[in-house]
Amino acid sequence: DAKNRGRNRYCFYDSKLQAKVLARSALHTGLRHALSQQQFSLHFQPQYHRDGQVLGAEVLLRWFDAELGPVSPAEFIPLAEDSGLILPIGAWVLQQSCQQLADWQHDTLKADWHLAVNLSVRQLHDPKFVELVRNTLQQTGANPANLVLELTETQLLEDIEAVIVKMQQLGELGVRFSLDDFGTGYSSLSYLKRLPLNQLKIDGSFVRDLLDDPSDEAIIRTILALGNSLELAVIAEGVETVEQYLALRNLGCQQFQGYLLGRPAPVAELSTRHQTPGL
Ligand code: C2E
Ligand code: MG
Ligand code: MG
Ligand code: MG
């Protein structure tokens, strides 16, 4: 009867919820030891100029746990943010990235390459963050101009005034900023003007449907025009096919990132690519 069905349904949801809570706590336990157990590594995904030149790469965090196997950042980053673990984890990513930049500076082919590091807004709000970036740059000797900090549009909008102050302080160190997943939030143009940005990153969702959906094409056109008028570089992420790449080029896009041009991979693979393959 209805009462029984109701109870069963309740039990069903309950056990599903329980499984979720258990999975979450297993992840959390694993995550707490991941740094000390050296389970993190970094992948690098190349970013290209339309002339075929490698500009640098985006740094993407990877976690391999002995019991859990590989865990996607889409899964563990939110958990790291909620628990505060993102602060030591983010500091490690920054340290490794700056060390990599410093290493490249001795190599004439790579001396100008940048690295784009993803930030959580929680790191930005940490009172010690500006000091951390300054010290990491100093200790490693990385050129601040080659360090790009990526912030997502939606994260930024939460506490915009505080974010602007922090970005200005970091900007004074010489680092640059890219606005990630652009187009998925609702940035007002007046805010965009006030943020010390250097680049907009077109969200991969618009690139994915670019050839089929006229409104996605319109959005990409608008972002490119916005970049032009605000004098910001624009990069497209998630470029998977030649057709998408050519369509983006036709719309005037200058910078590209995606599986077509290079998958995220260990740093050694990155250094072998100097030309846009097959284009
Ligand atoms: P994101 O910053 O927008 O990074 C782009 C994501 O798209 C990456 O997923 C990348 O592997 C994937 N991707 C690259 N090219 C393509 C493509 O052509 N097609 C498709 N379908 N996907 C592509 P990933 O590595 O799983 O990272 C997911 C998200 O996790 C990132 O999104 C970023 O927000 C976050 N994340 C990664 N590393 C870090 C980190 O060190 N710190 C913080 N705070 N967040 C990070
Ligand atoms: Mg990113
Ligand atoms: Mg992105
Ligand atoms: Mg994205």
TrEMBL record:
Alphabetically ordered keywords of this record: Membrane, Signal, Transmembrane, Transmembrane helix
Keyword Transmembrane helix found: yes
Domain of life: Bacteria
Source lineage: Bacteria, Pseudomonadati, Pseudomonadota, Gammaproteobacteria, Chromatiales
Protein name listed in UniProt: Periplasmic sensor diguanylate cyclase/phosphodiesterase
Source species of the chain: Arsukibacterium tuosuense
Parent-protein residues present: 584 to 862 of 862
GO molecular function: catalytic activity
The EAL domain, residue ranges: 24-278
